[in-house]
Amino acid sequence: MTRVSAPETRVLVSGATGRMGRRVIEEAAARDDVRVVAGVSRDLSGEISGIPVEPAGEFGVVLAEYDPDVLVDFSVPEASREFVADCAEANVACVVGTTGFEADEFAEDEFAEGGEAALREASEQVPVLHASNFSRGIQALLRAVEGAVRDLPGYDVEITESHHRHKRDAPSGTANAILDRIESAGEFGGRVHGREGESLRESGEIGVHARRAGGIRGEHELLLANEHEELRLTHRAGSRAVFADGALDAAVWLAGRGAGRYDFSEVVAE
Ligand SMILES: NC(=O)c1ccc[n+]([C@@H]2O[C@H](COP(=O)([O-])OP(=O)(O)OC[C@H]3O[C@@H](n4cnc5c(N)ncnc54)[C@H](OP(=O)(O)O)[C@@H]3O)[C@@H](O)[C@H]2O)c1
């Protein structure tokens, strides 16, 4: 991709009627480095906060009509993969916040990496940045996790995440990212999701607990403990604005870059 980044990055939002899509549109309105040119929805045609919303079923036509620099997608994996494939054909960069790729039906695809085959394929043609969490605090947490696990070998490790009652995937994409960091930083015996019955905790196992209640925006806690001390690293998202702004920062950063997979940590580092 050779497009030169414009002063204002032109963004198309998929999942526009969702909790995150709406927030992306709202946050973009307060910034001067991005402009949402349109959203797409399966059902709604009309406007959200003055932004035109077009039919998701005509995504290719919408791309041609609005000529965005970047897609910002917060939808569902089965829709996201279609949007991203169309963007690859239309030479549009992709910022994907959708989670749950690992759990969906295409996860067993022989070319898949964590169920993200469509993202990987698209990244051969356009820049693609997928993050399960666009909060800068979570980026800091991920770095802290590695250090804590290295410094505390042999400590028991448990993760608890809490989200609103509408969240589909469990554990959260962020919990999975934390788990990957833990496992890359130490020797562990496997993940145990929830517990019931009478068996004792094995040393080396990583306990994973997912809670779903009310309107919780997102909480992740890593607990490391031995017989004598406890360390807790906790992140709480106070508002979806933090994810929306992070995704928009990623969109501005990604516009005009070459094809490939990029990571949100690169955006934060700059
Ligand atoms: N990376 C991050 O920082 C971050 C932060 C928060 C949430 N997320 C993730 O972002 C995703 C969306 O979260 P949310 O809370 O905004 O969910 P949501 O409120 O349910 O919104 C999802 C939107 O996707 C669209 N959609 C659903 N199924 C579709 C389909 N089959 N085809 C086309 N569009 C479809 C729907 O819009 P229409 O019905 O109008 O088409 C819906 O409004 C989830 O995967 C969530 O885990 C990521």
Could you explain the architecture of this structure?
The protein is of the alpha/beta class and 270 residues long. The protein has two domains: 9-134 and 240-269, Rossmann fold, CATH 3.40.50; 136-236, Dihydrodipicolinate Reductase, domain 2 (2-Layer Sandwich), CATH 3.30.360. Helix content is 33%, strand content 26%. The chain has eight helices and 13 strands. The protein has helices at residues 19-29, 59-66, 77-90, 117-122, 136-151, 173-185, 241-254, 264-269, and strands at residues 9-14, 34-41, 46-48, 51-55, 70-73, 93-96, 127-130, 156-163, 190-193, 205-212, 219-225, 230-236, 260-262. The strands form two sheets. The protein has an eight-stranded mixed beta sheet, with helices on both faces. A five-stranded mixed beta sheet has the order 9-10-8-11-12, covered by helices on one side. Helix 1 (19-29) crosses helix 7 (241-254) and helix 5 (136-151) runs parallel beside helix 6. The longest helix has 16 residues, at 136-151. 42% of the residues are buried. Mean pLDDT is 92; it is low at 104-114. The site of NADP nicotinamide-adenine-dinucleotide phosphate has 25 residues, from helix 1 and helix 3. NADP nicotinamide-adenine-dinucleotide phosphate binds at residues 15, 17-21, 41-44, 56, 74-76, 78-79, 97-100, 131-134, 243.
Q: Give Rg in angstroms.
A: 19 Å
Q: What does the largest sheet look like?
A: 8 strands, mixed
Q: How many β-strands, per DSSP?
A: 13
How many domains? The number is: 2
Distance between the termini: 21 Å
Mean pLDDT across every amino acid position = 92
| Estimated structural class | alpha/beta
Helical run tally: 8
CATH class of the largest domain: Alpha Beta
Low-confidence stretches: 104-114
Shape: elongated
Helix content range:
25-40%
CATH architecture heading of the largest domain: 3-Layer(aba) Sandwich
Tell me the β content. Answer: 25-35%
CATH homologous superfamily identity of the largest domain: NAD(P)-binding Rossmann-like Domain
Helix-strand pattern, N to C? EHEEEHEHEHEHEHEEEEHEH
